[in-house]
Description:
Blueprint: E1 2-7, H1 11-23, E2 26-32, H2 35-45, E3 49-53, E4 55-56, E5 59-60, H3 61-70, E6 78-82, H4 90-95, E7 100-103, H5 109-118
Parallel strand pairs: 1-2, 1-3, 3-6, 6-7
Antiparallel strand pairs: 4-5
Amino acid sequence: MLRCLLVDDSTHFLAAASVLLERDGVAVVGVASTGAQALAAAAQLRPDVTLVDIDLGGESGFEVSWRLAQQAGTAVPIILTSAHDEEDYAELIAESPAIGFLSKTALSGRAIRDVLDRVGGPREQ
C-alpha cells in the first residue's frame, strides 16, 4: 500500500483527504500543518510520497517542499496541491522540487498513482 504524508494548514482538509485517500487504498501515515511538523514527520515516518499544500497559511508550500527535498535521507517524491488552478502557479511548480501538482478537487489515490507513474515514482508495496 502506498504510504502518504499530508501537509496542509486546514484541519478540515486533512481529515477529509485522509478519509478519501484511505478509501482509495492510500495509507495516510501522517499529517502536518506546518513546515517544521512536515520535516519531522517525513524524517520519522519515511512516506512513499508527500503532498504539500502550496499555501500553508503563514508559510509557503514551495519553501517547505525545498526544505523537505534538502532534508538528509528523505528523498521522497513531493506532489504540490492547491485549491487554485495549476496555471496560477505553473512557473513556480516547474521550478520546485515537486514531481507534480494535483488540484484539491482532483485528489484521489488514482491521481497520486498517475503522477508517480509519470515520473517512475515508488511502487506500492
